[in-house]
Amino acid sequence: MNMFRFEKTLFDKEVEGLSIQVVERGSQLELRFGNHIVQSARSLHAPDVLVLDYTRAMMAGLLFVPRPESALHFGLGGGSLPGFLHNHLQFLRQQVVEINRGVIDVAYRYFQLPVSNRLEVVHQDGTDFLRGQENLEPASRYDMIFLDAFHADGAEPDLNTGAIYGRLKSMLTSRGWLINNVWGSDKEKLNQVRRDMAAQIDNVSYVSVRSDSNVIFIASPSEAPPSLGLLRKRASLLSRQFPLDFENLAQKIRPLQTAAGAPAQAWRGGR
Questions:
Q1: What is the pLDDT of residues 86-127, one digit of tens each?
Q2: Which of 24, 83, 266, 271 is the most exposed place for a label (fewest CB within 10 A)?
Q3: What's the domain range around 74?
Q4: Is residue 209 in some structural domain?
């Protein structure tokens, strides 16, 4: 059933226990999981533009590692993030781990996920995938790991624990960064993620999205956050390369935890 007026449902099916809808609303396609929450969106007029605020905020990770050679994604959705990176970084190799076969099919069929030997989609539970990634050789580690696995009611809890952050930490290269998307509406859960990430990874920054509707944590066990001057320089260069306002993103980045071990305060809001 359509949630709003002036929309058309193109796909509506339960796959592997998940209710999946693709809806055309106005000038965009939306992916939903049985409720009003938009999991992913694609503009019909400008398909290479990131529509949702949180996807643009997750691209702040490029300010920390502007020329990644490898990226791992947990959660596919409509494939906005891997597709965007694939189209603009011709040297980047990506893997995406997605638990639901229906989501994978919809991403290719409706959201123009590229078919490419530089973009591999793995149909597997994220925790099962991680069991096969122990003791990775340095050449097999990732410059960027995106944690964006959501079901209908929020982030996947099994992939947001201190143990998982520790495992992901070991899979990063010496210049690698973990980018974690968390819903900001649940302050208790947000604070738990903050504490768990700060306990596992020395250097943590964050970007608050639209009144804390989402909070994007950016963390590295090796690299300190770039200076403000370097962020601004990188933002200027990246804004010429991507259809995205990196100068605005750079202004929203805030430090949370540093290698010096200063305790992070309880979450009270993005600024």
A1: 999 999 999 999 999 999 999 999 999 999 999 999 999 999
A2: 271
A3: 47-257
A4: yes
